[in-house]
Specification:
Length: 261
């Protein structure tokens, strides 16, 4: 029997967010709520379980806004600030469980998190509450996660490398400038695919709308959502230029997904 669940987009914006501080462009001043974009993250919920992908600096706001009541695991794509700096805000979720929350990332990502949040991993007894987590390093090998098979998908992020993740017929790929051929082979037969599409103008570390449309044409998922969107892309006007099976993600978007057998 298939395992089905729901993906909620907690944030669909860039590292600066949209509106961008001090910017008076049309998108930053837009009254369309879909043009208000917190930093990029999703939560995957199925049965009684919830998996968070990245803890953005906006995570507390996101958790309150979308009524996230529990967390069972956190997947980290990479260690840039807009993807990890909300880690301390998982503390309220520790109230609801006896065991520490497992967090998964590449060795480089876990090392960066341990340095940025050294107090979380210190052997010195804490005088106040700190996040209760335990770190698990992953590589490109699939691994079991709460009854699912999670497949890390290696991506190029400029000169760096990051992970996307596939679970069943759903995959979430953010912060990529290029998807290597070996990773494209992991992305066939998808119902729902999230792709980085920062803007139209080329960027050294992110995909453009045009490049991501080429990935869509190559991979042929049933539905694709572009994320990590800058203030260069007004939601309504950009969607008018996209094929019907490609949409822009927006904060609060909820998508039903098949996560495994």
């Amino acid at each position: 029997m298939a395992i089905t669940g729901k993906v909620t987009v907690l944030g669909s914006g860039t590292s600066l967010g949209v509106p961008t501080v001090g910017c008076d462009c049309d998108v930053c001043q837009s009254s369309d709520p879909r043009d208000n974009r917190l930093r990029p993250s999703v939560v995957v919920e199925f049965g009684t379980s919830a998996i968070l992908i990245d803890t953005t600096p906006d995570f507390r706001q996101q958790a309150l806004r979308f009524a996230i009541a529990k967390l069972d695991a956190v997947l980290f794509t990479h260690a840039h600030a807009d993807h990890i700096m909300g880690l301390d805000d998982i503390r309220p979720f520790n109230f609801r469980r006896r065991d520490p929350i497992p967090v998964y990332g590449s060795p480089e990502t876990i090392d960066s998190i341990q340095r940025a949040f050294s107090y979380v991993f210190s052997d010195t007894p804490a005088e106040s509450m700190i996040p209760k987590i335990y770190a698990k390093t992953i590589d490109s090998a699939p691994f079991p996660l709460l009854g699912l098979q999670c497949v890390p998908v290696a991506l190029q992020h400029g000169k760096g490398s990051v992970f996307g993740f596939r679970m069943g017929k759903f995959a979430y790929l953010t912060d990529h400038s290029e998807i290597p051929d070996a990773s494209l082979d992991l992305l066939s037969g998808l119902d729902v695919l999230f792709l980085d599409a920062l803007r139209h103008k080329p960027h050294p570390t992110h995909s453009t709308v045009e490049r991501s449309l080429k990935y869509v044409q190559q991979l042929q998922p049933a539905m694709t959502y572009f994320t990590h969107i800058s203030h260069d892309l007004p939601h309504a006007r950009t969607e008018q230029l996209l094929p019907p099976h490609v949409r822009l993600a927006y904060d609060g978007l909820k998508v039903e997904v098949e996560l495994g057998a």
